[in-house]
Amino acid sequence: MTNETPKILITAAGGKVGQHVAKQLSDKGVAARAGFHSQDKAAAPQPRGIEGVVLDFENPETIAAAFEGIDTLFLVTPGSPYAARQEERLLAEAKKVGVGRLVKLSGKIAEHHTVGFGVWNTEAERQIKGSGIPYTILRGNFFMQNLFGSAGQIKQGAFTMGPAAKKIALLDTRDVAAVAVAALIEPGHGGQTYDLNGPELLDGHAQAAVFSDVLGRPVKYLDVSAADFIENLKKFGLPDWLIEAFGVAAADAEVPGDQSSATVERILQRKPGSLAQFVRDHRSLFDA
User: Fold this and answer.
1) To 10 degrees, what angle do helices 240-251 and 117-129 make?
2) Partner of 211 for a Cys bridge, out of 76, 81, 219, 266, CB 3.0 to 4.6 A?
3) How far apart (Å, rounded) are the C-alpha atoms in residues 269 and 16?
4) Percentage of the chain lying above the pLDDT 90 cut
């Protein structure tokens, strides 16, 4: 690892994907700058060769400082009604400093959605394609790491994420990061939009069966309607726009788009990690 000035900027570096992008770049001996929303996180110890900086999407001064000397960008903006405005600022700064490679973390897009994550992702992708910056877009499926939010329920023996029948190719964010790193440092990914999926199509009951098998105790999936799932979310004080977005996603009978793991396998030259491996790796979080 040299003491070179970082040329890669990771936005949302404390997120489910960004943290692994930073670690995997470090493991490859590639210097990078990791942008965090808070000073505390930016000042915390980072992997070797990773420089932590404050990057507040609403603060132009921190944006300018974070982008100084950068030529490659891993772009993540939180799914929200404010994402388009924030991304517009970041893209403007990227163009200003001459960024020549952009890897964007997006998500599944359903053409029939009029609100929620799919709409925000569509607008984000539109802005990127119109920016003139060479890009790679990563449309990730449902992250296995989202199940951390259900750890308390799983410890008690039952969990739910809405209707049980929907089959999802759950995806480990460590694999998302590995694809992102490839797109950031290897040739051949420019102008591509990749659908990223895990290796297995699992409905709710099949997910619960994996937890049962790995943990060695019964774990059930509670089959609830999308409407009941949303009513339960209201107990947690989430913003209305976020509850609405979760509701739209939960109501879909199927995950939109391709759910094959072929793209991940081709880029990484291996199969993506299974849900069973994920549970084994994080067993302490789910054990009763």
Assistant:
1) 100
2) 219
3) 23
4) 88
- Residue 228 belongs to a domain: no
Q: Tell me the residue ranges of DSSP E strands in the chain.
A: 8-10, 32-36, 50-54, 72-75, 101-107, 135-140, 158-159, 192-196, 220-221
Q: Where are the beta strands (DSSP E) in 87-234?
A: 101-107, 135-140, 158-159, 192-196, 220-221
Domain assignment of residue 125, given as a range: 8-140+172-197+257-272
Return d(Cα 75, Cα 9) in angstroms, integer. Answer: 8
* Residue 67 near residue 93 (C-beta atoms within 8 A): yes
pLDDT band at 3 (very low <50, low <70, confident <90, very high): low
- How many other CB atoms are there within 10 angstroms of residue 96's CB atom? 11
Q: Is the dihedral of CA 159, 164, 166, 169 positive or negative?
A: positive
What is the four-CA torsion angle of 111, 130, 73, 69, rounded to 10 degrees? -160
Residue 116, domain CATH: 3.40.50.720
Does residue 1 fall inside a structural domain? no
